[in-house]
Amino acid sequence: MTNKQIAGRIGQIVLVLLGISFITFCLVMLAPGDVVRQMISGGEDIVVSQEEIAALKAELGLDQPFFMQYLSWLGRALQGNLGLSFMAKLPVTEVLFERLPGTIVLSLASLLMMLVFSIPAGIYSAVKRDSIFDFIVRGWTFFGVSVPGFWMGLMLLFIFGLKLDLVPIVGGDISFETLILPSLTLAISMSAKYTRQVRTAILEELHQDYVVGARARGMSESHILWKEVLPNALLPLITLLGLSLGNLLGGAAVVETVFSWPGLGRLVIEAITYRDFQLVQGAVVWMALMYMVINLVVDISYNYLDPRLRKAR
């Protein structure tokens, strides 16, 4: 990917972020209910005077026309100011960075578990196609793809937390004990999809003409698999890995909520519940940015992983 192409992709990211921020702003502002009343009352059933509502609206700039409110927010956001979270009584950027370590730890642990299982299982399942092991792996991946993440998390919590008492039931902090079950829940779902993709990619390469030619030249099956097939199957697998990491860094809302994990996904759920529109807006923009940046990094890495692209460049 040339510098001009990278600049074009960065321009696309900026345009997409503008579109996402505007749509999110519209949805938050057009949501039913009075956001200002919710901020004053804190969700409790108390009487709020119109004078208090009008004063807070003027302070937040919510008495201005809709597009002026968005342009005002956009101008602050371009300076790094995403507003103030009334739920946490802190700047939105500070709240996001406070929850970011939990999301990063959970994402990396889930990806590591997924890779440890998916790559060997997918490769061996492709090499031993239609064997007993292949049928077991395909059945497991079908189960993993079909089962909802929240149900899997609750079952793991019931078995290992409640019945066997091996891990704590209530989370809320970042530790090795509280990390095991949420990362395992995410890894099961991701490994089911990734194992299938590894198996499909390896099978597709095994039927290519260069594999037939390598066998005709007397190359060993291990050399063909590791030196010829796997490098060619690597690019689509890296793309899927980047997409998975982008999704995880955006926050796994359901799993984080089930296990009370202090990550971005749970933070967004709490912000939506309390109608913290500044925090919702900032979190959505953050998620979109992480997803697109990781995809850009994956595309750039192709130049170093695919010799054909290096030659063309």
Question: Helix and strand layout, with pairings?
Answer:
Elements: H1 3-30, H2 35-41, H3 50-60, H4 66-78, E1 84-85, E2 90-91, H5 92-127, H6 132-146, H7 149-163, H8 176-206, H9 209-216, H10 221-249, H11 253-258, H12 264-273, H13 277-305, H14 307-312
Antiparallel strand pairs: 1-2
Helix pairs in contact: 1-13, 5-6, 5-8, 5-10, 5-13, 6-8, 7-8, 8-10, 9-10, 10-13, 12-13
What's the helical proportion of residues?
Answer: over 70%
Radius of gyration: 24 Å
Q: What sequence of helices (H) and strands (E) makes up the elements?
A: HHHHEEHHHHHHHHHH
Total helical elements = 14
Mean pLDDT: 81
- Order of the strands making up the biggest sheet: 1-2
| Beta-strand segment tally | 2
Low-confidence stretches: none
Globular, elongated, flat, extended or rod-shaped: what is the shape?
A: flat
Proportion in β-strands: under 5%
Helix-and-strand structural type:
mainly alpha
The N- and C-terminal alpha carbons lie at a distance of: 7 Å
Q: Please outline the major beta sheet.
A: 2 strands, antiparallel
